[in-house]
Amino acid sequence: MGSVRWLVACGVLATFAGEVHAQDAKGCKDSPMMSRISGSAILYCNHESFAAHEFRMDGGNVKHVEGEYSAIGYQLPKDITDLQVFRNIESALKSDGWTIDHEKGTSEIVAHKGGAWFGLAGHGYRQPEYTFVVEKQMVQEVVANAAALRSGLAGKGHVVVSGIFFDTGKADVRSESDAALKEVAKLLQQDSSMRVFVVGHTDNAGSLSSNMDLSSRRAAAVMKELTTKYGVGATRLVAFGNGPYAPVASNDSEEGRAQNRRVELVKQ
After folding, report:
1. Are residues 202 and 215 in contact, defined by beta-carbon separation less than 8 angstroms?
2. Would the pTM of this model clear 0.70, i.e. be above it?
3. Which of 139, 167, 189 is a domain's end point?
4. Taking a C-beta distance cutoff of 8 angstroms, is the pair 93, 162 a contact?
5. Number of domains comprising the chain
6. What is the domain-level CATH number for residue 218?
7. What is the pLDDT of residues 198-254, one digit of tens each?
8. In terms of domains, do 109 and 125 share one?
9. pLDDT tens track for 218-227
C-alpha cells in the first residue's frame, strides 16, 4: 500500500500533517494521513498499536476493521463550519482515489484506500473527529502449550487452543498456527490413548447456516493439519463444527466475539 497522505488543493486544509500547535492537547499531533483545518486545535487523541473499530456503512451495515488505530478530535476556528470540513474532506478523498463507503448528511464520511480506513464524525459544536485504522494482523504472543492443554482436558474435559488462526470467513489454517498445532501434537504424542474432538466455534455475525458450515470446515482443517503435517493418527480425532451455539462471552462486543471465535479440544 502506498502513502495515504493527502492535502486539499483548495487550501482550507492548509496546515501540514504532523505539525504540533501550542493549544493542542498534551501529547497529541495530526495523523500523517491527513492535515487539519488551519487554525483548529486538537482537543483529544487516542492511539493504539492494535485495536478493533466498526465503521458505519451504507445500508445500515458495519465494517469491522482491526489494525493500528487512532482517533483525533478537533475544535474548529469560528469562521469554519462543519459543512466546509465535510466538503473539503469529501473532495480530497475522491481526488486521491479513496472509495467512499458511507455518507450521512454533512456530518459522517467513511472511506477506504487499500488497507487504510478513514472516518469523519461530526460531533456538533464544530468539533469533528477523525478516525484512522490501518489494517494489520495481530501478533500472537500467547499460544497453547501441551501442559496447559492437558490440565484443561483433565479438569474440565475441554480446552481452548490459543494461537490457531484463520482469515475472516475462511477455513484455511494460517502458518502462524504452527506453534499451537505442535503443542497439540505433543500432547497427543505424550498420551497414546488420548482421543479428542476438534471443535470449531464462531461468533453470531452472519447467518446461522454459514457459521455452522464455517466452524465445521475450520475444525476439519485443523484435523487435517494434525494428521498430515504432525503425524497424529486420524482415528484419534473427530472434527465437529458447533457454530455460535456455545459462546463463552457476549456477542454484543468485539472483545466477546473474538473470544467466541475459537478452536477447542474436547476429550472423547
Report:
1. yes
2. no
3. 139
4. no
5. 2
6. 3.30.1330.60
7. 999 999 988 999 999 999 999 999 999 999 999 999 999 999 999 999 999 998 887
8. yes
9. 999 999 999 9
